[in-house]
Amino acid sequence: MLTKSSSLMRLVGELKKLPGVGERTALRLAFHLLKSPRNMTALSDVLCEVRDRVHPCSKCFAITESDPCSICSGSRESGILCVVENSQDLMALERSNAYRGLYHVLEGVISPLSGIGPADLRVTELVERVAEGSVQEIVIATNFTVEGEATALYLTKVLKPTGVKISRLAHGIPLGSDIEFVDAATVQWALQGRNEL
Amino acid sequence: MLTKSSSLMRLVGELKKLPGVGERTALRLAFHLLKSPRNMTALSDVLCEVRDRVHPCSKCFAITESDPCSICSGSRESGILCVVENSQDLMALERSNAYRGLYHVLEGVISPLSGIGPADLRVTELVERVAEGSVQEIVIATNFTVEGEATALYLTKVLKPTGVKISRLAHGIPLGSDIEFVDAATVQWALQGRNEL
To answer: Based on the domain organization, do B31 and B125 belong to the same domain?
Structure first.
């Protein structure tokens, strides 16, 4: 049979490093891959391609294959800048099709418990971009977690002196949800942020 | 940002082919891999290695890197042969440390609904191994599913004329389970197969 040092067991070991993949799932994935050598080749090739080609955009730090990325080099409104924690959040905002401005990816969030301070994020680069003068509004779109809120607060403090308009994504009841089942804190935010009709 | 044809999106496409991995999970895995180029290289390399090195053993059809496999070439009892559906089941039996004989992997199970008949399995090879004369007992360890039971029945029919002893793994209450919560069919099997103390 197969020893611990066999390539299949090493594949299981590599798959186990993925989030949410334990020993059993890794084994299942490995045996699934084993059935199709073509899929193994394709996955192996595309992994090398991603490793060699994908990198952060030099302007907004979103992951991209071209530099600057298609958003920075496209015909977007350059007066508005949306600050996000990572490229996944950027993609979620892009999927909404509701934003036509530029982005700035922080590549993380202030988290003293994990030892991540403002210096570990792309804050200096953000301040530099704002200082260039073409930005009129900054939309802070960090997550509504303790770390995301702390980061938003910090960015507000740092950017306020530049005189640029600073906004934050709205908190409130998500679409399609029943107020009955929404948590109390969200209802509180929704009440505080109520809009006149 | 990234287009559909970008390498990252193709990586997501490849990951989505894995069992239990949907669009969101694939994206999460891809972004996780993106953080570590070293892991990407390791996974890519080991995939190629598995593709090139792992193959079925020419004797028992278990997946292996050597030929014959370590079980077939080791010092195991050659008089007893355990018939399993696939290499995963073989690994489960090996983990029990309760079996010291040889194996025969069918590489599937009879399933008329999926168009899989005995000719698609390693039945001919099994009959040939038994005909060689060294096998005294065959333990049928196909799963207790409709297909597994049908396969066991078919193998019994085919192997009976050889005069070799044929046994089947015991059905019954699994270890550590409460009889109250065990399904009726299993209780029925446990009663029928009760052992005198």
So the answer is: no
pLDDT digits over B144-163, tens only? 999 999 999 999 999 999 99
B182 falls within a domain:
no
**Is ipTM over 0.85?**
no
- Tell me, yes or no, whether B195 lies in a domain: no
Residue B26 lies in a domain: yes
**In a 3-state reduction of DSSP, which class is residue A6?**
coil
Asked if B44 lies within 8 A of A48 by C-beta distance, the reply is yes
Provide the chain B residues 19-58 that lie in CB contact (below 8 A) with chain A.
19-20, 25, 27-34, 37, 39-51, 53-54
Beta carbons within 10 angstroms of residue A91's beta carbon: 16
Q: Flag whether A80 is in a domain.
A: yes
A92 at interface of B, judged by CB pairs closer than 8 A: no
- Segment B36-86, tens digit of pLDDT: 999 999 999 999 999 999 999 999 999 999 889 999 998 999 999 999 999
Flag if B40 and A46 touch (Cβ within 8 Å).
no
Query: What is the reported pTM?
Result: 0.81
- Under 8 Å between Cβ of A40 and B53: no
Same domain, A71 and A164: yes
Residue-number span of the structural domain to which A78 is assigned: 63-168
List pLDDT tens digits, range A165-187: 999 988 888 888 888 888 888 88
